[in-house]
Amino acid sequence: MIIYSTYLKAIFWMVMGLIYALIIAGAPIWAQDLGLQMSWWKWVLAALWYVFVSYSFAAAFTLLGEKEPGAWYKFLGSHLAIAIILAIVLWYLV
User: Fold this and answer.
1) Using CB atoms within 10 A of its CB, is residue 90 exposed (0-12), middle (13-18) or buried (19+)?
2) From the CB of residue 31, how many other CB atoms can be counted at a distance below 10 Å?
């Protein structure tokens, strides 16, 4: 299958790394454009939230790939609900 291609797997991870690098590099510019006053602890909380959301998607779609039909959407749904609540709390702190 094309998904299991040696070349496409490497390209996928390079593109994912590029996307993550652009998001991390663009975050201070985006916060400055919004007029947010970010201190170091706010950046740490935002980074932890971003890692949590990334982990949630990665783990849920790993469960989907492992053919766990009941687990992946429950995992993703519960973690996204938590992520939304944490995002609201983070927004009020910022």
Assistant:
1) middle
2) 16
Report yes or no: 1 and 65 within 8 Å, Cβ to Cβ: no
List helix spans (H) across the chain: 6-34, 40-65, 69-93
Q: How far is CA 31 from CA 3, 16, 39, 43, 68, in A?
A: 37, 22, 11, 10, 39
| 8 A C-beta contact, residue 26 and residue 56 | no
CA proximity to 83, closest of 57, 59, 63, 61: 57
Total residues found in the chain within this entry: 94
Q: What is the pTM of this model?
A: 0.79
40-93: pLDDT as tens digits: 999 999 999 999 999 999 898 888 888 888 898 899 999 999 999 999 999 898
